[in-house]
Amino acid sequence: MVEQRTKNIATIISAATGLVLVFFNLPVAVARWSPIFNALSPTILNWIQNIFIAGFAFLTGWLLKSKLSTDESTFDIERDEEGVPVEEVQDETPTIDTIVGCVEVGEMAWRGIAEFSDVKVESVDVELTPRCPDCQKEMTRESYELPTGRGGNPYKSPLRGQSSITRKKWVCPDDDCGYTADRESGQHSEAQRLFKGFVQDIVESQGEEYSLDNLIERVDGEVTPQSVWEVYAEIKQSSHVSTDCFR
């Protein structure tokens, strides 16, 4: 807008300078070429006079219109508190380069974060400790021994003594919650694999309901790595896609 106003001012100055030159040089031209003007018929002279008057009126009106348009555009410019023009900023579609999500494995919630660029997943990291799906607190590892034997009675080996098995559990640290789950090998690896696959669905797909652009458009409010995953969880409807990590 400022650039256009500058062009208008430059055009007005150029046209005004041209009119001034015409007025100052017209008497000189008439005196120099008076034999030619005297030889012309009155009708032709009248036509020349009318054309000059019409051209002068047109230029005058155009200059006034340009001046008024310039003044109006000056008032239309948005300014800050100090009167400095504020540049217009075009609305841009928000973008993200990370996704924060949650997957359910072994009846527990595993929180992960993935980074990507363009349509390629760069890195995926799932926390080593799962969260309680009820209260979202990080669970703790516990182990205890269970005796084994026939009929549920402890069996004592003559060589090794009493036989037992070790039970490993994930336990919620909140006593009011009391949630527990079996702790087995491979749970974290499975959570990592699932989370990476879901993120690839979002980032690498095109034109799907769960593609990144469509998820961003459906976010109600601020677009964040977490809000995009929450919309994805509504669409995907998978037993492994969860939001229990940040509820």
The neighbouring-strand order within the major sheet is: 1-2-3
The coarse overall form would be rod-shaped
Largest sheet descriptor: 3 strands, antiparallel
Helix percent band = 40-55%
Secondary structure tally: strands: 8
Strand and helix layout:
Blueprint: H1 2-32, H2 34-39, H3 42-76, E1 98-105, E2 108-117, E3 120-126, E4 140-147, E5 156-157, E6 161-162, E7 164-171, E8 180-182, H4 187-204, H5 212-218, H6 225-236
Helix pairs in contact: 1-3, 5-6
Description:
The structure is a single chain. This protein has 247 residues and is α+β, with helices and mostly antiparallel strands. Strand 7 and strand 8 form a beta hairpin. The chain has two domains: 75 residues; 139 residues, no CATH class. It is built from six helices and eight strands; from the N terminus they run H-H-H-E-E-E-E-E-E-E-E-H-H-H. Strands 1-2-3 form a three-stranded antiparallel β-sheet. A three-stranded antiparallel β-sheet has the order 4-7-8, with no helix packed on it. The longest helix has 35 residues. Helix 1 packs antiparallel against helix 3 and helix 5 packs across helix 6.
Q: Main traits of this protein?
A:
247 residues, alpha+beta, three-stranded antiparallel beta sheet, 6 helices, 19% strand, rod-shaped
Short description:
The chain has 247 residues and is of the alpha+beta class. It contains six helices and eight strands, in the order αααββββββββααα. It has two domains: 2-76; 98-236, no CATH class.
